[in-house]
From TrEMBL:
PROSITE patterns named in the record: GNAT
UniProt-listed Gene3D superfamilies: 3.40.630.30
Pfam families: Acetyltransf_4
This protein's UniProt keywords: Acyltransferase, Transferase
Domain of life according to the entry: Bacteria
Protein name: GNAT family N-acetyltransferase
SUPFAM superfamilies, sorted: Acyl-CoA N-acyltransferases (Nat)
Residue span(s) of domain N-acetyltransferase: 6-174
């Protein structure tokens, strides 16, 4: 029997274990994250809870369960940076290249715009030469979605006995006016707004 259509919904604390299962192999087997140790379930649940205080954390789900997640978070902890966020996305390793990431990021961009966020910023591990731990796929993915390269840090991340670069990419999703609208915390968005963003 075919699986039901992919749906995007808000993450809950009950999803922490499933989301952590998606994240774990990226920590243990890749340099897509510079994190060395897989966080405990309790710590990961706290991360989600902290994110949801102001920012969205959403999951992509099928009958088989959660197959990807995406969030935004603080870009820099100063008031002047309020209109910018850092994006995060991970797709279950055996579900990649199926359009899940694009659907998650599309919803994340729409809900960020509804919050009056203007700048989406992505911090991406980047190899001088692709290897078994890190390719340039993430940079290409962001480029296809309209992000542009704005900065590169050389040999700033050390993992698996090798040095890796890191790049920043950005996408501007709103007008930078003289008096920008105040950012709306994610919990204050109503159901109709979330539905328009493609989020259940």
């Amino acid at each position: 029997m075919a699986e039901t259509e992919l749906r995007i919904r808000r993450a809950t604390l009950a999803d922490a274990e499933s989301i952590l299962d998606i994240y774990r192999p990226y920590v243990e087997e890749t340099v897509i994250t510079f994190e060395y140790l897989v966080p405990s379930l309790e710590e990961f649940r706290e991360r989600i809870a902290h994110t949801l205080e102001k920012y969205p954390c959403i999951v992509a789900e099928r009958d088989s369960g959660i197959v990807g997640y995406a969030c935004t978070g603080v870009f820099k902890d100063r008031a002047a940076y309020d209109w910018g966020v850092e994006t995060t996305i991970y797709v279950k390793k055996d579900c990649k290249r199926g359009g899940i990431g694009r659907k998650l990021y599309t919803a994340l961009e729409k809900v960020s715009a509804a919050q009056h966020i203007l700048n989406l910023n992505a911090c991406i591990g980047y190899p001088e030469v692709e290897d078994e731990y890190l390719t340039r796929d993430s940079a290409h993915f962001h480029e296809h979605l309209g992000y542009r390269l704005v900065g590169e840090f050389h040999k700033c991340g050390y993992k698996f006995g090798r040095w890796y670069d890191m790049i920043w990419m950005e996408k501007l999703i709103g007008d930078h006016t003289v008096e920008p609208k105040p950012v709306v915390p994610f919990p204050e968005l109503d159901e109709l707004t979330l539905h328009k963003c493609g989020i259940e």
